[in-house]
Amino acid sequence: MLKTGWMWNSAAVVLASVLSGALPAAAEKLEDQLVIATTGGLMGNTLAKYFYDPFQKAKNVEIVPVAIEVPDQWARAKAMQRTGKVEFDIVTATGPDLVGRTDMLEKIDCAKLPNVQKFGVSDACQPYGVARTTGGMLITYNTETFKNKAPKTWADFWDVKQFPGPRGLPDTGDSDWWVPVAALLADGVKPEQLFPLDINRAYKKLDEIRPNVAVWWKTGDQVQQIMRSREVVMAMSYSGRALAVVKEGIPVAMSWDQAIRDTGYMAVLKGAPDLKAAMAYLDFFYASSDAHVPFMRAVNYATASKSAIELLKPEERNLYATSPENYEKLVKPDFAWIGEHRNELRERWMAWLTR
Amino acid sequence: MMEARRSHFWRSDGRRLSGLSTLLLLLPFFALVAFVFVYPILQLLVISILEPHPTSENYARVVENPVHMRVLLRTLWTATLVTALSVVLGFPVAYYMSRAKGTVAALVAVCVILPLWSSVLVRTAAWSFLFQRNGLINSALMSLGLTSQPFKLLYTQSAVVIAMTHVLLPFMILPIYGALRSIPSDYARAAAVLGATRLRTFLEVILPLSLPGVVSGSLLVFLTAIGFFITPALLGSPQEMMISTLVSKQIREVLDWPFAAALVGVLTVFVTLLAVIFSKTLRFDRLMGNAS
Fold first, then answer.
1. What is the value of ipTM here, to two decimals?
2. Are B66 and A215 within 8 A, CB to CB?
3. pLDDT over 70 for what percent of chain A?
4. In this structure, are residues A239 and A246 in contact, taking their beta carbons and an 8 Å threshold?
5. Other Cβ atoms within 10 Å of B262 Cβ, number
6. Residue A209 sits in the same domain as residue A349
7. What percent of chain B is predicted at pLDDT more than 90?
């Protein structure tokens, strides 16, 4: 065991020194460790298997995973930056975070991440984050309740005459714009004309659906649970969570029509102690397409790897947000606008929700 | 006379403890409280008035925004309901416990205390299974033909109040039980000898003497209920949001610490005020089972 470990390391060192000729950036000495904060459970374990372990072997950097919910992660990061003792290197960020929390994040030089450029989709590298997993906030519904006619769009979600039964909507994460966006789509606004959001119109439409919302779910586990227990007949759900329920054999299906794109990014915290290792990891993530396929199957989300999605059969491909067919149906949010209007969105949401 | 007595500590043989030993006995406790409670709270209060710059803005926002006042009032209302329900449910149990003897008494006592050994989270989760649309209560009602459509039980104010009462009930029962036990049985006998009916004895002798227990139980339940977090979050809808959830939202999601600190400030002032009023009007020192 020890011996092979040693051989691996020396092989990696040789490989690194060979590569360093071609890529001067890779020649830099990396720090000994790298602290990555992301959700635990399935996501954390699968990342460890397909990305952390190979990275540790290849770069001789010990990865310290921190299992933490995203809101808690930001609260901790904020506390660390306040006290000047930053412990996290890589954190998990949403699209709006990359615009709204730039004061907490390190700027990323995409030119120095050749693998992301080469193997990632065109917008995988952003100034403050690299795309990790992409899904959508979509409609998931019970197929036994809606045997004859299935709901497809947000207008159907709002249509309680044709599709009666209790609904579930999120009260977590980015619900302050996800839900208003769905309301505007239900009211007939065209996806390309969504932004700037007509907030008053959205909340007028939201008043209509409110009596039919039985559950305002707070976690991914909860949205799965209310679909299994039939607490609701349809819900807005993370696509990956819905897919997991579908795979369990529960009579549930999902509609990708007008799903709101939801990408999780890897971002580097300002003041990160292991800055070089962090940047090296971001690039390493896209270095091998082979790891992406089993990773996607395990976590039920697509990565931004161009080549990985093509390795899947068409019917399997369509379970993921990035399949050519689904990607076209996705609603692409204007993160810059959302970032700028975040306080307004949040206050309106809170005021409406607690009324 | 009583005040003077109570301001000192006594040995079991009745001799007074010296000032130094009193200090030594209390020091570890107060040091701990100062370090893990008073210091962080003070630090939060400092943040609330000094950030982003010395200002009263954060407090103005608490008062100006109707959402925050609504959540605060709702928190107080929920706590009031829970306290009232706890008194109504707890008093008979405490009364029974104070009279019962032997195995039955032990059994009731265990039933009251046992829930305290399990986590709030577990008890709350159990309620959510009972309240589900296809949960035990709805299935029972539907199979008995009492209703054809399942009731909406989960994610309502009633669910929150019922589960919170369940969690907090021991804190009501135990002080009342203590107060009832400390009433000498001679009093009831004396009342009976003087010709009082059992009802009159209860209303005019037992009930007034047990009030200190009721008040301290209510105080415990009310103040704990105000800070409740898990139960309203799991069993309520956003409309049942309590002040602690609002604080946590500000800290976790919005990252607006100065404002969250201001909310904590308002709550701290409010709770302190309440405790002071209670202790002044109801003689807090007498409530701790020392009504001799």
1. 0.71
2. no
3. 92
4. no
5. 29
6. yes
7. 25
